[in-house]
Amino acid sequence: MRHALITGITGQDGAYLSRLLLEKGYKIYGLDRRTSLPTTERLRYMGVADDVILLDGDVTDQGSIVRALQAAEPDEVYNLAAQSFVGASWQQPVLTMETTGIGAVNVLEGIRLVNPRIRFYQASTSEMFGLVAEPVQSETTPFHPRSPYAIAKLFAHWTTINYRESYGMFACAGILFNHESPIRGLEFVTRKITDGVARIKHGRANELRLGNLDAKRDWGFAGDYVRAMWLMLGAEKPCEYVVATGHTTSVQEFCRIAFDCVGLNWKDYVTVDPQFARPADVPTLCGNAGRVKAELGWEPTTMLDELIAMMIEADLKRVGDERR
Ligand code: NDP
Ligand code: GDP
Catalytic annotation on 109? Predict the structure, then answer.
């Protein structure tokens, strides 16, 4: 039986990846940091909370990673732990650098010490392209990070490549474009919109306040994207891969589709509020996933309309249940 250790197991991708790897017959361990309330809500939502083994630890605490690696004896480590919200990274830049950047070094260094044959996946991001140098971004597009989050991720990305080149470790980085689901954090714009639509539809709110409506993202479904992570660690050689749908959509258009799902006009409810604008935004992202498709046979299965409908349905049900 293959063993996997997932940092960030309680996050969106950790929950989807846990379900996928359990279906593949893995034994799953997850690094779980101490919090005053339980953080297993997403694992419960995916129906896997009782099937994974949680180990106390934090990616900023090297000793806890070494102990987790010794206990789990993993064949594969997926480093998903991060302060992952771009907006918060200007408010907490040091914490973001330590968790999202140094955290990856701690995990890589732990692997080098405990067992350098462990295969390693780093959750890199399209935010590293930032102020894009090319209209469609691939593995060869130059980087121009625009936030403390993106800078921390770029540091972790190059550290991953350096550990591969220095020590011959099987260290991969997936450059994943935005991916969403019904368990996406409520602060991200997609989920903020679908939650807002559900609240308005149920009469719990009468407006939705957003920032930059012109920003464009290449949005995919988290369930598809975690499959790419697993494929990368099963590949013949470690590499970087862009994972994206190849379609880009504005926040405004996302709003239109989401409000349409419940028969409402977004223009009647959405208000622009400067407090949600960023000191430096990423205006547009669109990925070319040609390499992961050609080399690993990955394809997205869920397109944006379907994803939005899935998120709206789940939020309508959740907000409806809250009323009872
Ligand atoms: P989430 O924010 O949903 O999950 C982040 C996870 O990291 C949570 O489990 C969180 O734990 C954990 N975490 C935070 N700080 C620490 C710490 N110091 N030690 C240990 N664990 C910690 O992110 P996603 O699931 O959406 O994303 C997964 C990864 O992929 C992240 O690294 C993200 O930056 C990256 N990424 C995501 C994209 C997306 O569109 N979703 C796109 C590209 C990259 P807790 O539950 O306790 O908060
Ligand atoms: P990101 O791509 O990781 O930053 O994902 P987000 O979902 O946080 O933001 C995507 C884009 O939506 C960014 O360009 C934001 O500026 C824009 N946006 C517009 N309004 C909002 C808002 O109210 N909240 C968030 N999170 N983003 C917003």
Answer: no
